[in-house]
Design goal:
The chain has helices at residues 17-24, 43-56, 107-117, 120-132, 142-151, 169-176, 193-199, 215-223, 229-244, 248-255, and strands spanning 4-10, 31-36, 60-68, 73-74, 88-92, 136-139, 157-159, 182-185, 204-205. The protein starts with a strand and ends with a helix. It has one domain (4-255): Metal-dependent hydrolases (TIM Barrel). It is built from ten helices and nine strands. It is α/β, with parallel strands linked by helices.
């Protein structure tokens, strides 16, 4: 069974991709979805680093389009010219000033988000994702997340951590469980059988959120669900290969 970690933060300075993968391979991890760490002092440079190192180490590089919540700075909203070279977009904290664990509705934040979502820059980026059939890993507060999913039904959306930081698991899963284009990563979630049964194993992606999460604990939480072998294989890696249209073997062939 393959093991692909669907959320790994990397940075050329503080967490090089090679070091992250070396740590993850102690847990038999075969590959990973990588993206720039939000705390990076230079997100633009780390976006380039993610693509370069993703190709070097046979990973799934995501373009980071978001903010640094620790400095209250944001990347310019643009459609990168080499977007098709990535496997998806990691959207994080462009609107929200903090995590949302309760399902808050900040009217000013939502109005700002709606205005941005209607801008040519934003719609252009979403159109490009739809054209390339690329997923977006979207993390904002509860109201903004629901607004985004409703406005862009053609996109494949991945909600990190079962929505723990996007309004809380119960709120997010309760509102999005019937949408087949919405998927969820497992990191930081309580991940019980009832919660998983509401979305199905075909919409779950194993993730540790390394280095902020513990891979051993993250793997064990999935194993404790008691899924059958086929469903467990979906969660641990096959769903990533299907959504991103790239298997580990195919990547090896392309890069060899």
């Amino acid at each position: 069974m393959i093991l692909i970690d669907a959320a790994v933060h990397v940075s050329a300075r503080s967490m090089p991709t090679g070091d992250a993968l070396a740590a993850l391979r102690r847990f038999d991890t075969d590959s990973a979805v990588i993206f720039a760490d939000a705390q990076s002092p230079d997100l633009t440079a780390d976006n380039r680093y993610v693509l370069m190192s993703g190709q070097e180490f046979d990973c799934y590089p995501f373009y980071y389009a978001g903010g640094n919540p620790f400095t209250d700075t944001r990347l310019d909203l643009e459609n990168p010219p080499n977007l098709e070279d990535y496997c998806g977009v990691r959207w994080h904290g462009w609107f929200a000033e903090s995590e949302d664990r309760t399902g808050r509705v900040d009217r000013h934040e939502l109005e700002f988000a709606v205005m941005t979502m209607e801008s040519p820059e934003f719609t252009g980026l979403m159109s490009a994702l739809a054209f390339y059939d690329m997923p977006i890993m979207f993390e904002e507060d509860f109201a903004v997340t629901l607004e985004f999913v409703a406005r862009f039904p053609e996109l494949t959306v991945i909600i990190p951590s079962m929505g723990v930081f996007s309004g809380g698991e119960e709120n997010i899963v309760g509102r999005l469980q019937t949408n087949p284009r919405v998927h969820f990563t497992t990191s930081h979630s309580r991940l019980d059988r009832v919660l998983v049964s509401r979305v199905g194993p075909e919409r779950l992606l194993y993730a540790s959120d390394f280095p902020y999460g513990d891979p051993a604990q993250s793997i064990e939480r999935v194993k404790q669900l008691g899924l059958g072998d086929e469903d467990e294989a979906l969660v641990f890696g096959e769903n990533v290969e299907r959504l991103f249209h790239r298997s580990i073997d195919e990547v090896d062939v392309e890069e060899s």
